[in-house]
Amino acid sequence: MQSDMLLAVAETLPRTPSDGGVVVGYGALEELSRFAADPRWTLHVPGHPDEVRQTILDAGHRGERAYVHVTAEANAEPRAAAEGFARVRDGRAGVVLAVGATLDPVLRATADLDLAVLYARTLRPFDEIGLRTAVLAADHADVVLAEPGPTGTTACHVAATLVHVPHRLLTLDGRNCFEEEGLERAVREFLR
Q: Under DSSP, is residue 120 helix (H, G, I), strand (E, B) or coil?
């Protein structure tokens, strides 16, 4: 069975202008880490085939140096493009930053918890203002980072953003973000 996410890449890349500088990695975790560490690149992690198409086209048209990380998993519905992190759900007990296709499992696993959920389909540039605003609005500065890449890919950006805010951070990588029961257990154990 072919992934809808991969088909979205195949359908879109031929239409991308050749000067776009768009690189696509399908489940390539080492490349994700490498591009995430290079500030000269924009890093996108779309969570739905429609988002993949739009991200590639937009990056190509803007002429940006962009790395687009695609996984086999996908959210059920696309999210509208937003500058920075999109607030998907309000909550007061802490903040979850769900990256790409981790959004649906995060929403289901935390449905009965009073957590703000932010959705990131672009990680670089990192939305410091969006994260800091959400954390400062919560009763506890507890942050759960759920991303499809290796642990620590984005943790340093969260820590740098909250350097003046005493906080706690739980990082969950691709192995832990798509299994809802384990995700829910990890988040519940982490919360105060």
A: strand
pLDDT reported for residue 17? 46
Q: Output the CA–CA distances (angstroms, integers) from residue 84 to 62, 68, 87, 97, 108, in the order listed.
A: 17, 16, 10, 12, 23
Could you tell me which residues are beta bridge partners of residue 97? 118, 145
Name residue, tokens 């988002």. 51
Give 74's contacts (C-beta < 8 A, 6+ positions apart).
3, 4, 5, 47, 48, 49, 101
Residue 23 CB: number of other CB atoms within 10 A? 15
Q: What is the dihedral of CA 17, 125, 143, 55, to 10 degrees?
A: -10
Q: What residues contact residue 162 under an 8 Å CB cut-off, 6+ apart?
A: 131, 132, 135, 141, 143
Question: Whole-angstrom distance between the N-terminal and C-terminal Cα of the chain?
Answer: 42
Whether the model pTM is above 0.85: yes
| Segment 109-143, tens digit of pLDDT | 999 999 999 999 999 999 999 999 999 999 999 99
